[in-house]
Design goal:
The chain has 133 residues and is mostly beta strands. It has helices spanning 7-15, 124-129; strands spanning 25-29, 35-39, 41-42, 70-75, 81-85, 96-107, 113-121. The strands form 2 sheets. It has a 5-stranded antiparallel sheet with strand order 3-4-5-6-7. A two-stranded antiparallel ribbon has the order 1-2.
């Protein structure tokens, strides 16, 4: 996919493809300044599955109101995406974790629109430590 994934993520996904943890809820402050929560369902890495991580590349495709350098690794039951954010360092292996709203868009200065991106955690380890039941 052209990105280096965090080491801890690789450990988790290689051991438990399409993991839905028992503690699968995370809290965050949304873009409106309110505490919010979402659930977590990891996306499969297996290309033989009906949907895999490769099918979610639309998130980073500007033609579909996406944002370059975001890689979805999980989804929420409401349709939002949990992504690695490589915008600051596309060659790094410790990206921030963000939530991308599937149905909330902002208009950019150039007249295009893109999905709203909400910061969640500084890295994958911090994100996983936030999970609760």
């Amino acid at each position: 996919m052209g990105y280096s994934f965090p080491k801890e993520y690789k450990k988790v996904i290689s051991k438990y493809d399409e993991l839905i943890p028992v503690d699968n809820i995370f809290d965050f402050t949304n873009i409106y300044g309110e505490v919010d929560e979402r659930d977590l369902n990891f996306i499969s890495f297996n290309t033989d599955e009906a949907t895999s991580i490769y099918d979610y590349r639309i998130i980073s495709n500007p033609e579909y109101a996406g944002i370059p350098h975001l890689v979805a690794f999980a989804v929420c039951a409401n349709g939002d995406y949990i992504c690695f954010d490589y915008r600051e360092n596309p060659n790094g292996d410790n990206p921030k974790v963000v939530l991308v709203y599937h149905d909330d868009f902002v208009e950019n200065e150039d007249g295009t629109s893109s999905m709203v991106v909400n910061f969640v955690a500084d890295n994958f380890e911090e994100f996983m430590a936030r999970l609760h039941e």
